[in-house]
Every structure is written in C-alpha cells, then in structure tokens.
Amino acid sequence: MTEITPELVRHLAGLARIEVTEAEVAQFASQLALIVDSVATVKAVASQDIVATSHPIPMANVFREDVVTASLTQEQALSGAADSDSGRFKVSAILDED
Amino acid sequence: MELLSKSASELASMLVKKEISSVELTKAQLDNIDKLNPKINSYLTVTHELALSQAKQVDDQRAKGESLPALAGVPIAVKDNLATIGIATTAGSKILQGWVPPYDATVVKKILANKMPILGKTNLDEFAMGSSTENSAYGPSLNPWDLTRTPGGSGGGSSSAVASMQAPLAIGSDTGGSIRFPAAVTGTVGVKPTYGAVSRYGLIALGSSLDQVGPVTRNVMDAAMLQDAIAGHDPMDATSLPESLGSMTEAAKNDSVKGLRIGIIKELTGEGFQKGVSEKFNEALEVLVAAGAEIVEVSCPSFQYAIAAYYLIQPAEASSNLARFDSVRFGLRVMPEGAATVEKVMSATREAGFGPEVKRRIILGTYALSSGYYDAYYGSAQKVRTLIQADLAKAFEKADVLVSPTAPTTAFKLGEKQEDPLAMYLNDIATIPANLAGIPGMSLPVGLAKEDNLPVGAQFLAPAREDARLYKVGAVLEKLLEAKWSKKMMDFAPELKVN
C-alpha cells in the first residue's frame, strides 16, 4: 500500500494553490492512497524500452501565417476579471509585508 | 410531442419543405424544456430569446429563398464547457459561476454559421470530471428512463436533454467517455471523433491530449450531419487535423455490412459486464452476422493498464490546465480575512470554488508530475499509451472496426458510487482506450437489459481518421435493430412523469 501521509497531501495542495481543511486532508489521504495503489500498475511497463506517447496523433511545428488578425479588446479581456484598474488586472500584494 | 421526437434530419427536411418554421419548432422545444428541465436539470442555462431570434432569422432567410446549410433552423443544446459569447459558461463549477465569455468556441461559431438556434447550455460534472453529473456544482441531471438514476457523465446534461426530447441534437465533449457513456445509459447515439477532427478552441480544457468534441443525438444520421457541421481544420487549435475526413452524412447512407470484419475485443467482454448488457451486445452481433458481417476475435492485452494510465495522464494534464483558475482573469475571487497576498487569495478561491473531485484530481495530478514520481507514474502511463496504440494497430489488421459494450453496466442509481472514486472510474473501462489512442468511437443503443429494462450501448471503434467506418456500420446496425424491434429505441422509453 502506497503511503499518502497528511503532510504529503498538504504539500501537494500547497503546490496546487488549494487551501485544504483538516477533514479534506484526512479524506484525500485515504482516497489518494487507494487511487495511487490502483494506478501504480502502470509501473509494470516502467523498465521496458518503449517510446512514450504524449500526443495521440503525431504533429510537429504547427504554425500559422504571421498575419495580424482581430483579437479581444482590452475591455473584453478584462470583462471577466474580479477587479481591474486602468486597463489592467488588479490583484493583492504579490509579496508578504514582512 | 410527436414533433419533438422526430430526428434532426426529419426536422431539417420539414423545414426545407416549409411544413414547419424554425420559430414554431424552437418554441415547441423551449416549452418542453420549461416543462421538464426543472425536474431533470439537463440545462444550466436556457437561452429562450437568443434561440427564438436565431430561429426567426433563419426563417426570414429561408423565406427569401437564400441557400442554407443542411441543419439550418434545427435547434441544438451545447455542453456548458464550451465558451459562448454573452451566455454564462460555468463548466459545472462554482469557480466560473456567472462568467460570461468574451469569445465563442470554434464549435459554437460553426453552429451559428450553420444557422442552428442554441437552446441553452447543458449540465456536466465539474470540469467534465465524472461519469454521473453528480460532481456538478449545480446538482445532478436525471436519467429520463428512470429518474432515480444517472444519465451518465460527464455529459449527462446533453444526453438527458436529447433522450427526453428537450433537444434533437446536442454537443458533448469526450475525454475518457463523457459522450459515449452517457449515450449508452440513455439510449442515445454519441460519437467521439478522431482526436483533432473537431476544434478544441474554446472548450474548457480537461486533458488536452485526450479531449474531443462530438455529437449527441437520437440516431446515426443525425450524428453524421452534426459531425459534418462541426468538424474541420481550425488554425486556433494547433492539434486540429489539417485534412478533411470526408462526409459522414454520405457514410451514414451505407446499407450493407457484407464482408465487413468486426473485431470483438476479448478483454472487453464477459466477466465484469452485467448479464443483460452482454446479452444485448451479443444479439446485436448476431444481427450483424446475419447481414453478412464477419466476426473475428482480437486481443488488446495492454487495455489492462488503460484506466490506470488514464487516471495519471488526465489528472496530470488537468492539474496544469486548471492552474488558470487563479482568481485574476476570470471567475470567482475569495478574499481571506486579514491582509492577504495574491497567493493566499488564489488558494482561498480555489478551496471555495472547486468541488471535491476536482481537488482530488488536481492533487493526484500534482503528485504524478512531481519529481521522484514522474518517471514511475506519468512516464509509465505514456508508455502504456504507446502499447495501446500498438495493440490497436494489430487489431485493425484483422478487423475493419472493433466492438465492445460501451459500459459494463446500465445506468446506476444516483448516489450509488459517489463515495467511491475508484468504482466510479471503472465505468469508463471500455471508452478510455480510444482517448488514449486518439481514435474515433461511437456508442449506439442496442436494446434494453432484461433485468432492469434500461438501455444498453455497443461501442464501435475505428482507426484514426476513419470515422466514416463508424457511421457505415452504425447506420446499418440501427436499421436492422429497428426492423427487428419494429420500433425505434426511444419508443421503448417510459412516459415521463414530472411534478
């Protein structure tokens, strides 16, 4: 059984920028342990010399012509923002005060 | 009601003959939605005014004798993970509640160009993560065949709408079976085209290397016409196929399966499948054999790793895709108490805005991608993809199309699997390989399971870019089954009692 500790869940949730309650930590730890055990069966092929497939239909270097086309206006781009100021997205302080 | 149970192709021809106007049809359709939707919850947003104004426009154009696309005037429902200008788009999540996109998904643009009135946006599991719609932040949709059961997921809004005559056509998206599983459990037709056949631009991304938009309909011809309407190269989607796959509408006119080699996938039959599902599946095969098709058995041993690989790749891609919900550019912003940095605002927003399954998958994906685990999990899962493609390539040497039941069971009860993520994931055992390999798949109704009188779906798979084969075999099987039953699949559906 893979051990998914509460600390690991807190760490992963932190990396994913999701606050989690203690109840969620406990629940996710036990559920993720089961899920990770189940998906770990893929390790059976880990050592085999097989090329990895990241994309199902091979394509490379997909470009379009370098032509300027219509795009969203500044107003449209900001239309879904929680807050904006002078045509820019507005957020809280990036750094802690201390 | 008789009007609303007609197929989209029949409706299109009535519109051409001016036996009915698009306004009359759209109005009747909206009336039925107003009656049924409060109970079934297929739609998260109903766009009465928009639909009627579009219908009026197409009627006016027709009156002037303008030449119109094949499905002009036939209304359609759109899954709520496709961006629509001026119409709220939630992806079934609280984090996008009230978001009104400033752009249209390419598929939506195509629907508008095809002059199809948009009835509204359909329910889904949050960000399309689920097999039942129970993960929707706006409550589950119900299965019209039995209101205590799921219409499947993630596209249960679209499947239940089409199955309950709340729309003749709908758009779905399929990452691991979200079009085909709902189709199977509601007696409808659902197609996941070849990866890249339909643009993903404006589809709120779940697993970018797996997602594909496709048709949800009540028969094969309707699905073909809809795929023709929405497919095609899109410079806005770098994974969009540059070449045309030909006319699916023409393929759906096929009337013979003589000599067609149909491969039964050994790993997707027998054990683990509900008895009534296997029975109906086998009956469908007998019908095809009687019509001259040849059955061969194929083996895809790597399918045993498919679900495992999928639940690494998809959460990994989702964890990255959903990073965009950061409380800055769109959607919810939750301010924690006291002085807050942007990072704290982000974390509080994502805590409040995401439901449990989305959090679970983001955390799982973050785990799979973290250093020290990456090679063992994500790297191996990508190797499995290669193995599955190799198995399929070999199988398609022996067979023109492959077949299996679409799902192991008929529709399950709402609540039955909600507390057990692993049990929920198993619904997609037969559908996931197509997404991992990028190939097209169709779910077609093949009757009702004896033990519960609920719809059973058969899934056909074809090689990448050979979507036409699905429509060729699907059209013939549908016709043969309807002749055998002397009615259509939907004629078996129980009368819907709401209130």
From TrEMBL, chain A:
* Gene3D superfamilies in UniProt: Glu-tRNAGln amidotransferase C subunit, N-terminal domain (1.10.20.60)
Q: Enumerate the InterPro entries for this protein.
A: Asp/Glu-ADT_sf_sub_c, GatC
Q: Which Pfam families match?
A: GatC
What GO terms in the biological process aspect are recorded for it?
regulation of translational fidelity
Task: Write out the transmembrane intervals.
Answer: none
Q: What HAMAP family does the entry give? A: GatC
Its recorded name reads: Unannotated protein
Organism name: freshwater metagenome
What is the organism lineage in this UniProt record?
Answer: unclassified sequences, metagenomes, ecological metagenomes
UniProtKB/TrEMBL annotation, chain B:
Origin species: freshwater metagenome
The Amidase domain extends over 24-470
Q: Which GO terms describe its biological process?
A: translation
Tell me the GO molecular function terms.
ATP binding; glutaminyl-tRNA synthase (glutamine-hydrolyzing) activity
Q: Which reaction does it catalyse?
A: L-glutamyl-tRNA(Gln) + L-glutamine + ATP + H2O = L-glutaminyl-tRNA(Gln) + L-glutamate + ADP + phosphate + H(+)
Write down any Gene Ontology CC term: mitochondrion
Q: Which UniProt keywords apply?
A: ATP-binding, Ligase, Nucleotide-binding, Protein biosynthesis
Name of the top EC class for this enzyme: ligase
Enzyme Commission code: 6.3.5.7
- Classification via Pfam families: Amidase
From the UniProt entry, list the residue stretches annotated as the region Disordered. Answer: 133-161
NCBIfam families in the record: gatA
Protein name per the record: glutaminyl-tRNA synthase (glutamine-hydrolyzing)
Provide the family line: Belongs to the amidase family. GatA subfamily.
